[in-house]
Amino acid sequence: MKTMVVGVGDCKVTGEPAEIVTFALGSCIAVVIWDPVAKVGGLLHFMLPDSAVDRETQGRANPYRYADTGTPLLFRQAYEKGAEKRRLQVRLAGGANVVDQGGVFNIGRRNHAAVRKILWRAGVLVHGEDVGGSVSRTVRLNVATGRCTVSEPSGVVRELRAGAPVASAAGGAECRVA
Description:
178 residues, alpha+beta, CATH 3.30.1330.200, 6-stranded mixed beta sheet, 5-stranded mixed beta sheet, globular
Protein backbone atom coordinates (compact mmCIF):
# COMPACT_ATOMS: atom_id res chain seq x y z
CA MET A 1 0.00 0.00 0.00
CA LYS A 2 1.21 3.48 -0.88
CA THR A 3 2.17 5.78 2.01
CA MET A 4 1.52 9.51 1.74
CA VAL A 5 3.39 11.64 4.28
CA VAL A 6 1.87 14.93 5.35
CA GLY A 7 4.38 17.44 6.65
CA VAL A 8 3.80 20.42 8.91
CA GLY A 9 1.55 22.93 7.14
CA ASP A 10 0.61 20.33 4.53
CA CYS A 11 -2.40 18.34 3.34
CA LYS A 12 -3.04 15.17 1.34
CA VAL A 13 -6.34 13.85 -0.04
CA THR A 14 -6.81 10.67 -2.04
CA GLY A 15 -9.41 8.25 -3.32
CA GLU A 16 -6.81 5.51 -3.78
CA PRO A 17 -5.98 2.77 -1.27
CA ALA A 18 -3.20 4.40 0.74
CA GLU A 19 -2.03 5.21 4.21
CA ILE A 20 -1.84 8.92 4.99
CA VAL A 21 0.46 9.71 7.92
CA THR A 22 1.70 12.77 9.77
CA PHE A 23 4.41 12.70 12.40
CA ALA A 24 5.20 14.62 15.57
CA LEU A 25 2.00 16.59 16.10
CA GLY A 26 2.71 18.81 19.06
CA SER A 27 0.54 21.91 19.36
CA CYS A 28 -0.45 21.41 15.71
CA ILE A 29 -3.73 19.72 14.84
CA ALA A 30 -4.40 16.93 12.37
CA VAL A 31 -7.84 17.10 10.77
CA VAL A 32 -8.62 13.63 9.43
CA ILE A 33 -11.60 13.06 7.14
CA TRP A 34 -12.91 9.89 5.52
CA ASP A 35 -15.95 9.08 3.37
CA PRO A 36 -16.80 5.37 3.82
CA VAL A 37 -18.83 5.20 0.58
CA ALA A 38 -16.50 7.04 -1.81
CA LYS A 39 -13.41 5.69 0.02
CA VAL A 40 -11.90 9.17 -0.02
CA GLY A 41 -9.67 10.25 2.83
CA GLY A 42 -7.62 13.26 3.72
CA LEU A 43 -5.39 14.68 6.40
CA LEU A 44 -4.46 18.29 7.14
CA HIS A 45 -1.60 19.14 9.54
CA PHE A 46 -2.00 22.82 10.46
CA MET A 47 0.20 24.88 12.78
CA LEU A 48 -1.73 28.00 13.75
CA PRO A 49 -5.38 28.97 14.18
CA ASP A 50 -5.59 32.13 12.07
CA SER A 51 -3.92 33.24 8.85
CA ALA A 52 -4.21 36.90 9.94
CA VAL A 53 -0.78 36.54 11.58
CA ASP A 54 0.64 36.28 8.04
CA ARG A 55 0.60 40.01 7.37
CA GLU A 56 2.07 39.70 3.86
CA THR A 57 -0.19 37.09 2.23
CA GLN A 58 -2.91 36.31 4.83
CA GLY A 59 -2.14 32.61 4.41
CA ARG A 60 -2.21 32.51 0.62
CA ALA A 61 1.48 31.56 0.43
CA ASN A 62 0.90 28.44 2.56
CA PRO A 63 -2.81 27.98 3.28
CA TYR A 64 -2.35 24.59 4.97
CA ARG A 65 -0.35 26.24 7.75
CA TYR A 66 -3.54 27.74 9.25
CA ALA A 67 -6.86 26.32 10.44
CA ASP A 68 -8.97 29.00 8.77
CA THR A 69 -7.47 28.57 5.30
CA GLY A 70 -6.41 24.91 5.33
CA THR A 71 -9.59 23.32 6.66
CA PRO A 72 -11.86 24.51 3.83
CA LEU A 73 -9.27 23.40 1.26
CA LEU A 74 -9.11 19.91 2.79
CA PHE A 75 -12.86 19.52 2.47
CA ARG A 76 -12.98 21.03 -1.02
CA GLN A 77 -10.36 18.57 -2.28
CA ALA A 78 -12.28 15.65 -0.78
CA TYR A 79 -15.51 16.81 -2.46
CA GLU A 80 -13.66 17.03 -5.79
CA LYS A 81 -12.75 13.34 -5.39
CA GLY A 82 -16.36 12.29 -4.69
CA ALA A 83 -16.71 12.65 -0.92
CA GLU A 84 -19.98 14.02 0.43
CA LYS A 85 -20.21 16.24 3.48
CA ARG A 86 -23.05 14.28 5.08
CA ARG A 87 -21.04 11.03 4.98
CA LEU A 88 -17.69 12.34 6.20
CA GLN A 89 -16.23 11.00 9.41
CA VAL A 90 -14.13 13.75 10.97
CA ARG A 91 -11.48 13.16 13.61
CA LEU A 92 -9.06 15.57 15.29
CA ALA A 93 -5.73 14.87 16.97
CA GLY A 94 -2.92 16.96 18.43
CA GLY A 95 -3.19 20.29 20.20
CA ALA A 96 -0.73 19.28 22.91
CA ASN A 97 1.15 21.62 25.16
CA VAL A 98 4.66 20.33 24.42
CA VAL A 99 6.73 23.52 24.11
CA ASP A 100 4.81 26.08 26.15
CA GLN A 101 4.78 24.21 29.49
CA GLY A 102 3.78 27.38 31.34
CA GLY A 103 0.67 27.72 29.17
CA VAL A 104 1.50 31.30 28.20
CA PHE A 105 0.52 31.00 24.53
CA ASN A 106 -1.83 27.99 24.63
CA ILE A 107 -1.31 27.35 20.91
CA GLY A 108 -2.64 23.78 21.15
CA ARG A 109 -5.87 24.90 22.82
CA ARG A 110 -6.24 27.83 20.45
CA ASN A 111 -5.74 25.53 17.45
CA HIS A 112 -8.36 23.11 18.77
CA ALA A 113 -10.88 25.86 19.50
CA ALA A 114 -10.33 27.42 16.06
CA VAL A 115 -10.89 24.23 14.09
CA ARG A 116 -13.94 23.27 16.18
CA LYS A 117 -15.44 26.71 15.48
CA ILE A 118 -14.73 26.42 11.73
CA LEU A 119 -16.32 22.97 11.59
CA TRP A 120 -19.31 24.03 13.70
CA ARG A 121 -20.00 27.03 11.44
CA ALA A 122 -19.85 24.71 8.41
CA GLY A 123 -22.28 22.26 10.02
CA VAL A 124 -19.65 19.53 10.25
CA LEU A 125 -19.69 17.21 13.26
CA VAL A 126 -16.55 15.77 14.85
CA HIS A 127 -16.73 12.00 15.37
CA GLY A 128 -13.56 11.49 17.41
CA GLU A 129 -10.81 13.45 19.10
CA ASP A 130 -7.47 12.84 20.74
CA VAL A 131 -6.37 16.34 21.73
CA GLY A 132 -4.56 18.14 24.52
CA GLY A 133 -2.10 16.66 26.95
CA SER A 134 1.64 17.17 26.75
CA VAL A 135 2.96 14.54 24.32
CA SER A 136 3.39 14.58 20.59
CA ARG A 137 1.41 12.23 18.37
CA THR A 138 1.71 10.45 15.04
CA VAL A 139 -1.56 9.97 13.16
CA ARG A 140 -2.26 7.41 10.43
CA LEU A 141 -5.33 6.96 8.24
CA ASN A 142 -5.89 3.85 6.14
CA VAL A 143 -8.00 5.25 3.30
CA ALA A 144 -9.23 1.80 2.20
CA THR A 145 -10.72 0.98 5.63
CA GLY A 146 -11.03 4.32 7.44
CA ARG A 147 -8.98 3.01 10.37
CA CYS A 148 -7.22 5.88 12.11
CA THR A 149 -4.52 5.34 14.73
CA VAL A 150 -2.72 7.69 17.06
CA SER A 151 0.65 6.78 18.52
CA GLU A 152 2.84 8.44 21.12
CA PRO A 153 6.64 8.38 21.53
CA SER A 154 6.21 5.96 24.46
CA GLY A 155 4.98 3.33 22.00
CA VAL A 156 1.32 3.58 22.99
CA VAL A 157 -0.88 3.13 19.91
CA ARG A 158 -4.64 3.49 20.01
CA GLU A 159 -7.36 3.53 17.42
CA LEU A 160 -9.20 6.81 17.04
CA ARG A 161 -12.62 5.47 16.17
CA ALA A 162 -15.29 7.51 14.47
CA GLY A 163 -18.17 7.12 16.87
CA ALA A 164 -21.10 9.36 17.60
CA PRO A 165 -20.37 13.07 17.12
CA VAL A 166 -18.41 14.60 20.01
CA ALA A 167 -19.51 17.83 21.64
CA SER A 168 -16.75 20.40 22.04
CA ALA A 169 -14.86 20.07 25.31
CA ALA A 170 -15.74 22.92 27.65
CA GLY A 171 -13.07 25.58 27.70
CA GLY A 172 -10.88 23.66 25.27
CA ALA A 173 -10.04 21.03 27.90
CA GLU A 174 -8.48 17.75 26.92
CA CYS A 175 -10.94 15.36 25.31
CA ARG A 176 -9.98 11.84 24.26
CA VAL A 177 -12.39 9.54 22.52
CA ALA A 178 -11.22 6.03 21.64
